[in-house]
Structures are given as C-alpha cells and as structure tokens.
C-alpha cells in the first residue's frame, strides 16, 4: 500500500527516539521492548489531523511513521480511541484491516514478499524460503501470515496477499520500494548490502 500522507515532522520523531534512549539498556539479548509513543506526541498528531478527511487513518499512519520501529503499540491505539471518543474496537479494526499497519515492532529493514497467485506461480514461495534461510528465520507452523524479525532487529520479513502489480511478478517490497521480477540473486545481494549498512541500491 502506498503512503497516504507525507512523513511526520522530524521534531515529533525525535521525541519518541528520546523516550527510547531513556529506557534502561540491556547488555544481552533479548533487545529492550520498544518505547511507547509519548502521549504529548500523540496529542500533537491528533490535533493536526482532527476533523480532516480520513482522520483516523491519517492519525494511525502518522503515528506508525513516527515510531522508530514503524509499528503501533497497543497503548497508542487505546490512547487514540479515548482521545477521539470512539470504541477501541473501531481503532483496532482499522489497524488490523490494512496490511500497511503493524502491531508488532519491525526491524530496521523490511522485506515484504507477495504471496498472491501471480507471484506464487512465478516463484514467490521459493523467494520467501530463500529469505528465511538467509536471515535464519523460521515461521510458526500453520501461521496464516508471516511476520518474522531477526533477533538483532535488523530485518523483518512479511507477506502480503497481492500488491496489485501482478504483471511484474514476483514482487518484493524492500524498505518501501516495490521491486519487480525479483530473482534469488537480487535477494541475496540486497540482504548482503543492507546487512553491511548500505542501501538497497
Ligand atoms: S499476485 Fe503479486 S502483485 Fe499480485
């Protein structure tokens, strides 16, 4: 899904990063749980979006983009519901309906593999297996959707039902950029480059 709005302002993001930094650090795994979004930051986002078309969607997208781990903590959804005076279930149903929203923290880099029919027939399952092997990730048996993050929080891999770009199958989204006709070789190169701290291209 394409971004619906512009990324939030830097000042708000800094407030969340400051909250994250103030958390006590562990020296060993597991990594610390990501900090929630501070209420004053949520308030600012809500005020900016209040009364505008797609108010709730815009608020949730802003808040997710603001979080360093690109997700919506449960406490944030509850706070938004209370502030807008709508049932928590309504906010949750929006956050769970759109594949764009994440209720779990994401790694620094996210790769989304399309598992729709066109991509499947052109090898998306094999691409997914390659990614899992490269990143040493295993899915739970019987899991409907895949959302796996490496222990060092560097990579997340997810699946999506269809990107709507079936003619370009197999399609993989890498850090928000759609990649078409993806081969095993491409995947290996991207993972290696991103793991070394580089960009996809
Ligand atoms: S099936 Fe993959 S983009 Fe449609």
Q: Could you describe the 3D structure shown?
A:
This protein has 201 residues and is α+β, with helices and mostly antiparallel strands. The protein has two domains: 88 residues, no CATH class; 87 residues, Glutaredoxin (3-Layer(aba) Sandwich). The chain has eight helices and five strands. Strands 2-3-1-4-5 form a five-stranded mixed beta sheet, covered by helices on one side. The longest helix is centred in the N-terminal third of the chain and has 12 residues. The radius of gyration is 18 Å and the shape is elongated. The N terminus is likely disordered. FE2/S2 (inorganic) cluster binds next to helix 6.
Low-confidence stretches: 1-7, 23-30
Helix content estimate: 40-55%
Identify the overall geometry: elongated
Distinct small molecules bound, one entry per kind: FE2/S2 (inorganic) cluster
Rounded to an integer in angstroms, the radius of gyration calculated over CA atoms is 18 Å
In DSSP terms (H or I, runs of 4 or more residues), the helix count works out at 8
Give the structural class.
alpha+beta
Strand order of the largest sheet: 2-3-1-4-5
Biggest β-sheet strands, sense, barrel: 5 strands, mixed
Order of helices and strands: HHHHHEHHEEEEH
Number of strands: 5
Mean pLDDT over the residues: 85
Could you give the distance between the termini?
Answer: 21 Å
* Count of domain modules: 2
Question: How much beta, percentage-wise?
Answer: 5-15%
């Amino acid at each position: 899904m394409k971004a619906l709005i512009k990324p939030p302002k830097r000042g708000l993001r800094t407030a969340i990063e400051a909250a994250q930094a103030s958390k006590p650090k562990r020296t060993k795994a597991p990594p610390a749980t990501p900090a929630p979004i501070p209420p004053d930051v949520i308030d600012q986002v809500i005020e900016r979006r209040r009364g505008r078309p797609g108010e709730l969607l815009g608020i949730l997208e802003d808040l997710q983009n603001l979080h360093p781990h690109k997700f919506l903590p449960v406490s944030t959804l509850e706070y938004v519901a209370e502030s807008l005076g709508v049932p928590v279930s309504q906010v949750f149903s929006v956050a769970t309906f759109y594949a764009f929203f994440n209720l779990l923290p994401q790694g620094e880099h996210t790769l989304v593999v399309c598992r729709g029919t066109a991509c499947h027939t052109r090898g998306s399952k094999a691409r997914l297996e390659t990614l899992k092997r490269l990143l040493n990730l295993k899915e739970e048996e019987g899991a409907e959707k895949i959302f796996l993050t490496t222990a060092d929080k560097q990579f997340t891999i997810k699946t999506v039902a269809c990107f709507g770009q079936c003619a370009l199958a197999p399609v993989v989204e890498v850090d928000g950029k759609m990649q078409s006709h993806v081969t095993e070789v491409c995947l290996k190169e991207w993972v290696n480059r991103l793991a070394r701290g580089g960009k996809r291209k």
